Amino acid sequence: MSRIHNCPCGTGTPYGDCCRPLRRSERAAATAEELMRSRYSAFAELDESYLLRSWHPATRPASVAFDPDLRWVGLEIVATEAGRVEDRDGIVEFRAHHRRGDEQGVLHEVSRFRRQDGAWLYVRGRIR
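That's the UPF0225 protein DJ010_06050 sequence above. Prediction below.
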């Protein structure tokens, strides 16, 4: 029996219908926001392989360093600019909430995305 749980990205949708198909390469993200949400889910679940595959080759690091004591606990999309199905570039501003022990924190970032060969890719982010 499979256990249905909501996706870590905060849509309220079951994980199997939300970010899992993207992370398993069953389909591509339709929008920059959808890619952003799937990347948050990958950070929450320490999925380095997906993060690197969804990173633009021009800015992709060799590896992703995870903080083993950090737990991602919520995603809030603040704003989006372009990044729709018909766009080439997009921007997603978000707040990713986390905990480390008893301490809570927020990563506030404005991320840039680019569609390349029909797939959205993360280019870079600027911390606010």
